[in-house]
Structure formats: C-alpha cells, structure tokens
Amino acid sequence: MPDLLAQLESLAEGARRAVEAARDERALEDLRVRTLGKKGELSAVLRGMGQLPPEERPKVGEVANRVRDEVETLLARGQERIARERLEADLQGPPIDVTLPGRRLLPRGHRHPVSRAMEDITSIFVRLGYEVAAGPEIEHDWFNFEALNIPPDHPARDMQDTFYVDDAGLRGGGKGGVLLRTHTSPIQIRAMKRAGRPPVRVVAPGRVYRSDYDQTHSPMFHQVEGFAVDQGITFADLRGTLAAFARAFFGPETRTRFRPSYFPFVEPGAEVDVSCSICGGTGQKEGRRCGACKGTGWLEVLGAGMVHPKVLENVGFEPGKVTGFAFGMGVERMAMLRHGIDDLRLFFDNDLRFLEQF
Predict the structure, then answer these.
(1) In degrees, to the nearest 5, what angle opens at C-alpha 215 toward C-alphas 166 and 273?
(2) Which of 59, 91, 123 is the last residue of a domain?
(3) Is 247 found in the same domain as 207?
(4) Is residue 59 situated within a structural domain?
(5) 173 lies in the same domain as 289
(6) Residue 302 pLDDT
(7) Sign of dihedral through CA atoms 250, 192, 311, 198?
(8) Per-state percent for the chain, helix, strand, coil, to nearest 5
(9) For residue 56, what are the domain limits?
(10) CATH number at residue 154
(11) Among 30-44, 108-122, 194-208, 239-253, whose mean pLDDT is lowest?
(12) Residue 39: its pLDDT value, please?
C-alpha cells in the first residue's frame, strides 16, 4: 500500500506543476487525458489495488478520489487563468481606431422585394392602430376552415388546394385534419379567442401554402390578413380603412373601387380594386391600351367584407352586439402591381439580375 499512496501523491504533485506551467487549453487537455483518462496514470495506479489486502483498499480508494477531485479542480482553475490572461493580453494590445472607414469585403445585400412589401403593408396598418399577430403555419382544420364558416362539404374548400399533413383530413373530407394553412385567416380566429372580447384590431402577415404553381401562383406565398371587431363598426369603416391603405401603399392619387363578391367568412363580401398606377386610371398609356390593367383603369388587389355572424359566434362573440370587417391580400401580388412584374415565379428564382433591381 505505501507504494500506491506514494504514486498517488506524486501524481497530484506532478499535476500541480503541469497546470501551473500550462499556457493554453491544449496543454490542459493533454494533461487531463494523461492523468484522468481511461488509460491515464490514475487508472494505472488503481489497477494495482487488486493486489492489496481487502482491509487496505478503502484507504487507497479514498486517497485516489481525493487526488482525482484535486486534479479536476486544478484543471478548472487553469482554464480560468488562461482565459483571464488572454483577455488581459487583448486589452493590452494595440488600440482599435474606430474612426477608420470600414473595409467593404463583399457587396452589401438588401431586403427581398416580397419582404419589403410585407413590411410596408404591415407598417401602414400599425400606424392605423392595428396590432401585429402571428400563428402556426401547420394548422388545425377547425381554425383554417370550420371556424371561418367553411364546413367539410363547402365548395370553397375545392379552391384551396390544401396540403394535408396527416390522413385524417383526406379520409374525413377535410374534417379534423392537420394541414399547412391555406391563408392567414386562422390568426383572426386565434386572436379573437385570445382577446376574449372586443375591441380587437389585428394585422396578420405570414406564409401560406396551396398546391398550385403557374405564372401567377406559387405553392408557398405570403398573405396579410387584417380585421377589426368592435361595437358599431360598419362597411363605411372598411372602405375608409382600405382607401387610406391604398393611398399609403400605391400613392396619394390612388382611388379605390368595391365590387360585390363572395367569401364564406364575410357577409357582405367585396373585391377591392385600385386605380392603375401605370396609366393613372385612364386605361391608356402613350396612346395604347395599358397592359397592366388591360385597358380597364383598375387593378384587383384584395378581398374584404364584414365578418360573418357565424364566425363571431364560433369565437364566443355576440353578433347582435358587435360587428367587424376583415380583408386579406397576397403580398406577392401587391409587389407585382407596385413594381410592374408580370410573373410571380421571378420572386423565387433567386436570379440576382432580377433581385438587384429593387
């Protein structure tokens, strides 16, 4: 036993000297492996315990544990010392002249036109007093359809081209499934349930998904949904809000027009047009028919209407006491109209020749 105890004490003394002499983390790691590793010096000493009488083994085990704890403590303190010394060396190094101009190593990027359009749309409604809200992109069928007055057998579901995450939605005709949200309108339901009572004014930007891909459609695109619910809200409030938005987004001379339309979650519903910014609403550009508005002088931009009473009931609001309006728009379409782009797919091709124009 005396030999083993002497070896353990020698091992501890050697570790003290090695930690004190170490100048970097690599030296400390080598010491740890050499001393405490599976094939290290401490393990070699402990293998000799099998030759000791049973009554002597506890004493050696006690000393071995103490040595192991001491070495681990020394290593931790060594790491702290090295980190402190490195910091002090950096502080004592040559000063940095913060007044020198920066070195441009790579060309600077900028915001994607879709991101800029979504941020501009959102900021306009924030200035009008709306709160920004978000929701899950993987959504329950109830929030995405049923709570919005779109039951399983409703023909409007056929227009959605839904991506279902599980088979329940397919087997049950859509009922009870989990899906990729087809619009940001589920946030309307979640926001009203979270608020519990009016007033509620929310704008909800985000990604949505539909199984569609062509010149004017993408399987992933962006929408901005907005709604306001309170006592005494009328269609006139909706018109005034969207007219103010159109002037802020397209320009102060922009006019708006409402056309009757149908959406399951609003009643009455409308398509909203704005005067064409290319031809000034005349339908003519340089003596020819305007290609942007096809000679009509108007561009369709979004859908809107008064919140359906059934939707209010589904979130626990009383339709007889409160009313509200809602609107929704495709961000890519807004960006296309703002910049005169005729193919939505250009936004997702990552062609720098296209993106650097914005």
Answers:
(1) 95
(2) 91
(3) yes
(4) yes
(5) yes
(6) 93
(7) negative
(8) 45, 20, 35
(9) 2-91
(10) 3.30.930.10
(11) 30-44
(12) 79
Tell me, yes or no, whether 56 and 128 share the same domain. Answer: no
Q: What CA–CA distance (Å, rounded) separates 179 from 169?
A: 8
Residue 119 is assigned to a structural domain of this protein: yes
Question: Which 8-state DSSP code applies to residue 165?
Answer: S
What token pair was written down for 121? Answer: 């749309």
Band of pLDDT at residue 133, cut at 50, 70 and 90: very high
What confidence score (pLDDT) does residue 287 get?
81
What angle, 0 to 180 degrees and rounded to 10, lies between the N-to-C axes of helices 57-91 and 25-36?
170
Which of these, 205, 247, 207, 199, lies nearest to 225 by C-alpha position? 205
Q: How much is the pLDDT for 173? A: 53
Number of domains in the chain: 2
3-class DSSP state of 192 = helix
Lookup result for tokens 């049923």: 146
Query: What tens digit of pLDDT does each residue of 165-178 get?
Result: 876 655 555 556 89
> Is 222 part of any domain?
yes
Whether residues 264 and 319 fall in one domain? yes
**Residues 134-157, mean pLDDT to the nearest whole number:** 88
224 contacts 184 by C-beta, under 8 angstroms: yes
Tokens found for residue 353: 């020749």
Residue 294 lies in a domain: yes
Q: Which are the contacts of 256, defined by CB distance < 8 A and separation ≥ 6?
A: 239, 242, 243, 246, 272, 273, 274, 275
Confidence class for position 295, pLDDT limits 50, 70, 90? confident
Rounded-to-integer distance, Cα 158 and Cα 180, Å:
15
Instruction: Please give the structure tokens belonging to residue 52.
Output: 């000791």
Q: Look at residue 53 and tell me whether its pLDDT is greater than 70.
A: yes
Q: Do 210 and 308 share a domain, yes or no?
A: yes
